[in-house]
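Let us work through a complete example step by step.
Step 1: write down the sequence.
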Amino acid sequence: MNFYLIAIVTLIYIILMMLYFPETSPKNRTEQHWFRLLKTNTLRALQCPAFTVNLTVSGLSYAAMIVYLTMSPYLFQKVLQMSAVHYGWTNIVNATGFFAGGTVNAILIGRLSINQMMRYGALLICFGALLLVLTGLFNWVAALPVLASIFIAFMGCGFMFSNASAAALQPFPEAAGLVGAVFGCLQVLIAAITSLLSALIHVHNQ
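Step 2: predict the structure and record it as tokens.
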């Protein structure tokens, strides 16, 4: 059922994109020399410190979420003996934390700079990670402290994503769409590599 739902949502998303987000680039630009344009702008982006730094920050934040999603089934269902249904409900906490971070971020836009909001996001992620480490060190491994820590960390991710992407794309106003696609691709690549590395860690400990 979940896969059908994902397929339906994706189809609706594609239709809405086609109807309400038409191509804005000149026709000759989109049809001619597209590969050379992609290569040029990708190299420009990778040579820009603002892009690479914010890409790294955003990628590592995304990786933190992926690492949790990689290990959480084992933690909740194997260690804490939680049913698959109850484990599914715990993801409401993740989503709520991320939504809360994005909401607070939207409220603070105009009052704080991008760097300040990213700094607060990084602090929240580090604090949530520290709490997770303490639960393992002091054997407090239970659903409530783990979910509280994850809520804080995901709230920090809500701060990081939008601000990091905005800061990374600022130097490229004339190629924001293409550079944004490169940003998203590399962000997911960083998270995928981190997820692979975390999956290789011994699973019989926290």
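Step 3: interpret the result. Residues 23 and 30 are 9 Å apart (CA to CA).
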